[in-house]
Every structure is written in C-alpha cells, then in structure tokens.
Amino acid sequence: MLSLIEETREIFQRWELSASEQLAVLGQSADADFDRLSELEDQNSTQLIARCACLIALDRALTVLYPSQPLANRWLSQPNTHGFFNQQTPLDLLKTGELESLRYISQLMTAWSAGNG
Predict the structure, then answer these.
(1) Within 10 Å of residue 48's Cβ, how many Cβ atoms?
(2) Could you give the maximum distance between any two Cα atoms of the chain, in Å?
(3) Which pairs from 50-53 meet CB under 8 Å and 24+ separation?
(4) Do residues 87 and 81 make contact, with C-beta atoms less than 8 angstroms apart?
(5) How far is the C-alpha of 92 from the C-alpha of 85, rounded, in Å?
(6) Would you say 94 and 105 are in contact if contact means Cβ atoms under 8 Å apart?
(7) DSSP secondary structure string, 9-46?
(8) What whole-number distance in Å separates Cα of residue 58 and Cα of residue 107?
(9) CA-CA distance, 22 to 50, in Å (whole number)?
(10) What are phi and psi of 89, to 5 degrees?
(11) Can you give the residue ranges of every domain in the chain?
(12) What is the pTM of this model?
C-alpha cells in the first residue's frame, strides 16, 4: 500500500494540490497525517487503496488526453459542462471525498482517453 500512497503523492504534486486538498480527495479529515495513511485500519485502508487506484487511473487518462501538465491541471480546475459535473470543477467534486464520484470521474476520463466518450 505504501507504493500506492507514494504514487498518489506524486500525482498530487503534479496537480499542485495543497495538503488540505490532498486529504479531502483521499476522504480524510483535515487533521489527518498524510505520512501515517499506510497505518489505517482494514476498512479505511480498503477505501484508501480504492481511492489511490482511481487517482492513478485518472492521472494516466489525463496524461493521454492532455499533452502537458498545465493543460491537465487546467482541466481539473475549470468548470465542466458535462452533465455529471453540473458546471463544477472536477477538483471540487474530487474534494467532496465521495468515493463514487472519484470512481465515476476516473472511469469517465479513462473512457475518453481510449476514445470512448
């Protein structure tokens, strides 16, 4: 699990997310310690693994769709007209901490990156 957390941390750095944004996307409270996430209990660790896997898939899809990191970051931070986003930014939805939203965004972008969207 530690390698998933490390890869997710690298993604967050590329996305230029603040510490509080990172914890929100991972569904953690603002006072959580990012460095101790690998010590979570079973149910919470299963949730964290699922979130990290979705974030890795989302990042890979963004890399395919956008040739530069600034373009990918812009996609994350601009309001989106797709019905699911309802004019919110993808990052705003990711920061709700809802695993189902994260899964959907990851699946949507993976499909788009494969030309199925």
Answers:
(1) 21
(2) 40
(3) 50/99, 50/103, 51/8, 51/25, 51/26, 51/27, 51/99, 51/102, 52/4, 52/5, 52/7, 52/8, 52/26, 53/4
(4) yes
(5) 9
(6) yes
(7) HHHHHHHT--HHHHHHHTT--TT--GGGGGG--HHHHH
(8) 8
(9) 15
(10) -80, 150
(11) 2-113
(12) 0.89
Q: Which residues contact 102 (CB under 8 A, 6 or more apart)?
A: 25, 51, 54, 55, 58, 94
**pLDDT 10s digit of each residue in the chain, 117 long?**
568 888 999 999 999 999 999 999 998 877 777 666 666 555 567 888 899 999 999 999 999 999 899 999 999 999 999 999 999 999 999 999 899 999 999 999 999 999 886
Both structure tokens of 81? 């007209």
Which structure tokens are listed for 6?
């490390």
- Give which of 9, 51, 58 is closest to 66, Cα–Cα: 58
Written as six digits, the tokens of 48 are 């964290």
Q: What tokens were used for 41?
A: 């209990």
